[in-house]
Amino acid sequence: MTGIEQEASRLEAVVWRLLEQGKMPEAVRACTALNQQYPQYAAGWNSASHLAYKARNLRMAIAAIDRALELRPGIVDWVLHKARCHGQQGEFGRVSELIEPLREQPLKSGWQCATLGLLLSRMEQQEAALQQYLRAVELEPEEGQHYYNLASVQRFLGRFDEAEAALSRAIALDPRDYDAYKLRSDLRTWSAQRNHVEQLRALIEAGVDSPRGEVQLCYALAKELEDIAQHDDSFRALKRGADQRRRHMRYDVGGDIETMAEIARVYSADRLLSDQRQGCT
Q1: DSSP category for residue 72
Q2: How are the residues of the chain apportioned to helix, strand and coil, as percentages rounded to the nearest 5?
Q3: Are 178 and 210 in contact (CB under 8 A)?
Q4: What pLDDT sits at residue 3?
Q5: Is-above-0.90 flag for pTM?
């Protein structure tokens, strides 16, 4: 790695660190500086694409990842990210073109398999998605999210026992995966002899460190109590969850507007195309 590449890589790390800290406008400005100073550094454009994607500016996200792939063609993670962008726009014909060459490749990471699985699932190719999620679990057996994804497809395919086992593994790996508890409760109608009521009650009464997590647990408990005909208790759990959800329904529209405006200013598609023609990005 040259000195220039090392400095560009250092600046890229700053961008991602700011993003992880939730400092989106600062990350955008840092990425702007990175791409202006090192326009031939392909990973910088990949970073720009991820920032635009996070801000839900898909046009800009696609323009930036196109530039990254022009500079370094064939990077699997980047191709999958581009396919994900097109998928968010409902352009599944384009998604199919992008992922078709990847379907028979031995993908090397759980993220790659899980992302391909998600795209296949969204195109209603559930059996193919299932194989990718199984591969993700094989590659990264300690990553709970892969088991949740696997269970979602297994549930769709009617493989409820397998889905329950996958969700139990997801919960064992991450007891704070509250979506997994909710999905598990939704798998089937539970009985007085077979349910998770006491576990769910204990988790709620012990205190949940996430308002959204408490909502999911309350809804899961309400579902299972309804299944076993404890209707009054079910209503109380449902009300507790609904009350908690209302208390925490907040959304920082201003922050998103600021971020999207900054991205639109810096990464306009017209500017990207103009810079490409000049060979300076």
Answers
A1: S
A2: 75, 0, 25
A3: yes
A4: 81
A5: no
